[in-house]
Amino acid sequence: MTKTQQYIINCIETARKGFVELTEGLTLEQVNKIPPGFSNNIAWNLGHISVAALALAFKTSGVKPAIEIPYFKKYGKGTRPESDIDAEELQALKDYAVTAISMIKESITSNEFVNATVTPYTTATYGIPMTDLDEIIATIAMHDSMHYGIAKSLSRIV
User: Fold this and answer.
1) Confidence band (pLDDT; 50, 70, 90) for 135?
2) Residues 111, 113, 63, 141: what is their CA dihedral angle, to the nearest 10 degrees?
3) Residue 68 CB burial class (10 angstroms; 0-12, 13-18, ≥19)
4) Cα 57 from chain centroid?
5) Class for the domain spanning 3-157
6) Which long-range contacts (C-beta less than 8 Å, at least 24 apart) are formed by 110-113?
7) Do the Cβ atoms of 65 and 59 come closer than 8 Å?
8) Is 14:142 a contact under the CB 8 Å cutoff?
9) Nearest Cα to Cα of residue 140 among 109, 100, 106
10) Contact predicate 75/54, CB 8 Å
11) Which one, of 71, 74, 113, 77, lies nearest residue 96 by Cα?
């Protein structure tokens, strides 16, 4: 893992730790609430960052194209909260936020991405194509930060 990759992964881990801590100061009602003018809630944002990161890292790179991503159908691109989550699912999402980035970090450390052929992918959010691992993890960091910021804003109004 390069120094830059390590730095970006550390940024992602720090943001996710902050995101988890944010949820710990809220009730289930608060993490599930969708305020007027918003299309999602804090719980959805937490689930979304994990499934999106795994899809970007493993499917786009071809490293693990058939990876089974838990919660993908519920929190993937284009989804919205369909129902409230319970305390068990919230805890699972908090754990998953940490384990998902650990999976990516382990794959980088074990050189699984060395011979990867990244299928160029442009996110709808940023419109910037990703063509290699460094661009993928930088995009994950930006994406996580955006959703963490949204969750922080939501936490102030729920």
Assistant:
1) very high
2) 110
3) exposed
4) 11
5) mainly alpha
6) 112/63, 112/64, 113/61, 113/63
7) yes
8) no
9) 100
10) no
11) 71
Average pLDDT, the chain: 93
Residue-wise pLDDT for 20-71, tens only, equals 999 999 999 999 999 999 999 999 999 999 899 999 999 888 887 677 888 9
75-107 burial, b for 16+ CB within 10 Å, e for fewer? beeebebeeebeeebbeebbebbeebbebbbeb
Domain ranges of the chain: 3-157
Q: Where are the beta strands (DSSP E) in 5-133?
A: 121-122, 129-130
> CA nearest 101: which of 23, 25, 8?
8
- pTM for this model (two decimals): 0.92
Q: In the structure encoding, which two tokens stand for residue 110, read together?
A: 């074990």
